[in-house]
Design a protein that fits this description.
9 helices, single chain, 6-stranded mixed beta sheet, 2 domains, UDP-N-acetylmuramoyl-L-alanine:D-glutamate ligase, alpha/beta
Length: 285
């Protein structure tokens, strides 16, 4: 009931994948809870390329790339950023952005659709705003040369980020949150193994659980253990990744994004992946 009583100007459905099963018990329960959010007559935007959900069609706008939608990507390129052509009824506008990845194209598409319906801007102004947007803190954010941090902490989120960066040789630092859905932990390990040159499993808000137990559950998803390290101390794990990094490598630190704490046994300690990276690099000279 955390959003009970709130009124929303617009609602956006991006996708739904395995998450929060520790609260909902089963995926279908989670899906039904999400669907309830879209049953009213408020302005809503629905991704036609995602898993189908039930929604009230009144004041609903669809968007998509693969399937026909009201806001439709007609052509796009993901080389050196994002370039795309969007059509909507009798309108056409362009998306040109420095952001990376297919998931960011979807985000820019629906954000543009939402602004277009709410504000009715001049399309040239919309295009200018898109091109000038540098991204969200903690989402595929480059915090130093060859080092990226991202909030991804689910199998789907991790796969999307690493697939975006797959043309690089990846050293991936990641963990899984304690007191949360345990079934996703080996899946996260399996996905990271597929993309990473080297994987380093570490702590990520273990909460009341023992970090080693969480790390072992992640490790069980790896078919081969030769290219994976387990380092409980997150700062030491990041330091090791930076030490192992060669010129063409990209260090990807997943799970926290722009978070500034690490929760252990009920206490939230100050911790920022970005700050730690810069401290280590500064000390390395």
């Amino acid at each position: 009931n955390r959003i009970e009583g709130l009124k929303f100007v617009a609602k956006i459905f991006t996708n739904i994948t395995q998450d929060h099963l520790d609260f909902h018990g089963a995926f279908e329960n989670y899906k039904e809870a999400k669907e309830l959010f879209f049953t009213d007559e408020s302005l809503k935007f629905i991704n036609k390329d995602a898993l189908a959900i039930k929604f009230n069609v009144r004041n609903a706008f669809t968007y998509g790339i693969e399937n026909p939608a009201l806001y439709q990507i007609k052509a796009y390129s993901l080389e050196e950023g994002i370039s795309a052509i969007v059509t909507n009824k009798n309108q056409t506008f362009h998306i040109d952005s420095p952001l990376l990845g297919l998931f960011n194209l979807y985000n820019l598409l629906v954000a543009s659709a939402c602004v277009n319906e709410l504000v009715k801007p001049d399309l040239k102004d919309l295009e200018k705003a898109i091109s000038g947007f540098g991204g969200v803190c903690g989402r595929v954010e480059q915090v130093a040369k060859g080092v990226i941090v991202d909030f991804a902490h689910t199998p789907d989120g991790i796969e999307k980020v690493l697939d975006t960066l797959k043309n690089k040789k990846l050293i991936v630092v990641f963990g899984a949150g304690g007191d949360r859905d345990k079934t996703k932990r080996p899946l996260m390990g399996k996905i990271v193994e597929h993309f990473a040159k080297i994987a380093i499993i570490t702590s990520d808000n273990p909460r009341s659980e023992e970090p080693k137990t969480i790390m072992e559950e992640i490790l069980s998803g790896f078919a081969k253990k030769e290219k994976v390290l387990t380092i409980e101390d997150r700062k030491e794990a990041i330091k090791k990744a930076l030490e192992l990094k060669e010129n063409d490598d990209l260090v990807v630190i997943l799970g926290k994004g722009d978070e500034t704490t690490q929760e252990i046994k009920g206490i939230k300690y100050p911790f920022s992946d970005k700050v730690v990276v810069n401290e280590i690099l500064k000390n390395q000279g």
